[in-house]
Amino acid sequence: MKPSLAKGTRDFSAEEVYRRKFIINILQKNFELFGFQPLETPSFENLSTLTGKYGEEGDRLIFKILNSGDYASKTKEEDWSAKNSQKLISQISEKALRYDLTVPFARYVAMNHGQMTFPFKRYQIQPVWRADRPQKGRFREFYQCDADVVGSVSLWQEVELVQLYLKSFAELNVKVALHLNNRKILSGLAEFAGISDQLIDFTVALDKLDKIGKEGVVKELLEKNINQESIDKLDFLFNQSENALENLAQLKEKFQGNEIGTNGVEELEFVLTQSFELGISEESLKFDITLARGLDYYTGAIFEVKATDVAMGSIGGGGRYDNLTEVFGVKNIPGIGVSFGLDRIYLVMEELGLFPEDSVKTVQYLFANYGENESLAAMKIIGQLRAKGISAELYPESAKLKKQFTYAEKKGIPNLVFYGEQEISEGKITVKDLKTGEQIIQTTEEFLA
């Protein structure tokens, strides 16, 4: 049987791994510059930990893990006969692969809050899994790179995360626009339109605007039994100006007497104003009133990052989730976090040719193999190079030089070293630059200096 990969997963070559590490290293450096410390959580969680945290659509995309042993024997016969998958899931699956890093982090905080110093800042770089439909930039297994702060309601955290996003992408040379909204504004809009009881339906549809357009959003709202009168009241959402503060001023007028909507406007106004004062441009930071991110746990600011020079979905996102730990029995621990989409960032950088040449590491010296005695002498030199942090290797077989040349060229090794019987007897080493063809003879002392 010919082997194959599961859909939505990938193998990574050495070149790809090096480039992914290039991105991760920049993100990790910036996380730590901003005061975040590392954390890792298990690949799978109790299913009850994950369900009910991502909304109806998110719950469907959670990968469930079958219980060990004869799981079918413990199920109810009537549920098998009725093919009731929802009832069967709870009987045959107690664990699930993590859907994101935020909910496991909230679970960690709920379990360890008594030993924490607040505000607690952590970053996490690990894979997550979603039973999504694979397509360009969307995988079933992918890495998230998250930074979260819990234990603070200060809006300066939002300002800090804006800076973290833009600094990191600037160092990756990826031009981005950071879209910002506030969940309270969305709740205010629902109240303004008289559809507060359909807030989730409203936000899930609105979040798809860039994919299905205004007509698609309106159609979906009608399908969710949101009346035309309410939709007409929200029509201004699709005709926003380029000036963020002007749009907020317009909302202030519409939200008179609307407490939650007004709070959202005031919070967003603070974040935008302070960010602009810190030198961030309006081109880099945009108020996007249609940004909804259909996740149930956001309560305040919502972030989404998009690359400006290539057609790609969001390459980062996050928001404030002040109530998340409450579902684990721990109240009054507000939180906010952002995520960098490593895989999509990689695709953007690859498409735009943004990876520097030195992001892929290669062995610097390949020593030609002339036989057992010469190989032993070469290995002694190689050991001294490695002690200096210089990569080197010995061709493993005493093969024809043409074969050894070909190996070096295919691996991108720039220097081929000849250390045969004559060189050893004379205490010299011959190094050939495979790019220029230049050949240099040195003493072993000069070579190792």
Automatic annotation (TrEMBL):
<keyword id="KW-0030">Aminoacyl-tRNA synthetase</keyword>
<dbReference type="InterPro" id="IPR045864">
    <property type="entry name" value="aa-tRNA-synth_II/BPL/LPL"/>
</dbReference>
<comment type="subunit">
    <text>Homodimer.</text>
</comment>
<feature type="binding site">
    <location>
        <position position="293"/>
    </location>
    <ligand>
        <name>L-histidine</name>
    </ligand>
</feature>
<keyword id="KW-0547">Nucleotide-binding</keyword>
<dbReference type="InterPro" id="IPR041715">
    <property type="entry name" value="HisRS-like_core"/>
</dbReference>
<dbReference type="InterPro" id="IPR006195">
    <property type="entry name" value="aa-tRNA-synth_II"/>
</dbReference>
<feature type="binding site">
    <location>
        <begin position="100"/>
        <end position="102"/>
    </location>
    <ligand>
        <name>L-histidine</name>
    </ligand>
</feature>
<dbReference type="Pfam" id="PF03129">
    <property type="entry name" value="HGTP_anticodon"/>
</dbReference>
<feature type="binding site">
    <location>
        <position position="144"/>
    </location>
    <ligand>
        <name>L-histidine</name>
    </ligand>
</feature>
<comment type="similarity">
    <text>Belongs to the class-II aminoacyl-tRNA synthetase family.</text>
</comment>
<protein>
    <recommendedName>
        <fullName>Histidine--tRNA ligase</fullName>
        <ecNumber>6.1.1.21</ecNumber>
    </recommendedName>
</protein>
<keyword id="KW-0067">ATP-binding</keyword>
<feature type="binding site">
    <location>
        <position position="148"/>
    </location>
    <ligand>
        <name>L-histidine</name>
    </ligand>
</feature>
<feature type="domain" description="Aminoacyl-transfer RNA synthetases class-II family profile">
    <location>
        <begin position="1"/>
        <end position="396"/>
    </location>
</feature>
<keyword id="KW-0436">Ligase</keyword>
<feature type="binding site">
    <location>
        <begin position="297"/>
        <end position="298"/>
    </location>
    <ligand>
        <name>L-histidine</name>
    </ligand>
</feature>
<dbReference type="GO" id="GO:0005524">
    <property type="term" value="F:ATP binding"/>
</dbReference>
<dbReference type="InterPro" id="IPR004154">
    <property type="entry name" value="Anticodon-bd"/>
</dbReference>
<dbReference type="InterPro" id="IPR015807">
    <property type="entry name" value="His-tRNA-ligase"/>
</dbReference>
<keyword id="KW-0963">Cytoplasm</keyword>
<dbReference type="GO" id="GO:0004821">
    <property type="term" value="F:histidine-tRNA ligase activity"/>
</dbReference>
<dbReference type="GO" id="GO:0006427">
    <property type="term" value="P:histidyl-tRNA aminoacylation"/>
</dbReference>
<dbReference type="Pfam" id="PF13393">
    <property type="entry name" value="tRNA-synt_His"/>
</dbReference>
<dbReference type="InterPro" id="IPR036621">
    <property type="entry name" value="Anticodon-bd_dom_sf"/>
</dbReference>
<dbReference type="GO" id="GO:0005737">
    <property type="term" value="C:cytoplasm"/>
</dbReference>
<dbReference type="InterPro" id="IPR033656">
    <property type="entry name" value="HisRS_anticodon"/>
</dbReference>
<feature type="binding site">
    <location>
        <position position="130"/>
    </location>
    <ligand>
        <name>L-histidine</name>
    </ligand>
</feature>
<keyword id="KW-0648">Protein biosynthesis</keyword>
<dbReference type="InterPro" id="IPR004516">
    <property type="entry name" value="HisRS/HisZ"/>
</dbReference>
